[in-house]
Write a structure and sequence with these properties.
By secondary structure, the protein is an all-alpha fold. The chain has one domain. Helices cover about 85% and strands about 0% of the residues. The protein is built from 4 helices and no strands. α2 packs antiparallel against α3. It starts with a helix and ends with a helix.
């Protein structure tokens, strides 16, 4: 089991967890099995573990990226689509009120 942990750490360090694809992991696993470094069972577990870690890493990276973008947009003080839609609704109501008042004056 220690060999698997060492291999995992080497793979995670060398390739980068988020960039792992199923094909890459399966290819690496087959290579390690062929060289006698892993058994078939260890190879299957290795593939599952690496794919799970890769997905977790992708999700973490996505969350961090989303937060960075959100923070940047907040600092830029840009209007969001929902803000613009709300303002359009308010403008339409004001136009209707103005038109109503104008028609009463006549």
């Amino acid at each position: 089991m220690i060999m698997i942990d060492i291999i995992k750490k080497a793979v995670l360090t060398g390739i980068g967890v988020a960039s792992l694809t199923k094909e890459k992991v399966e290819e690496l696993s087959k290579e390690l099995i062929d060289k006698g470094k892993l058994s078939e069972q260890e190879g299957e577990k290795f593939v599952q573990d690496m794919l799970t870690r890769a997905e977790e890493s992708r999700k973490s990276w996505q969350n961090q990226t989303d937060q960075l973008v959100k923070n940047a947009l907040e600092k830029m003080q840009l209007a969001r689509a929902e803000d613009i839609a709300m303002l359009k609704g308010e403008i339409e109501k004001l136009r209707e009120e103005i038109a109503s008042l104008q028609s009463k004056e006549k």
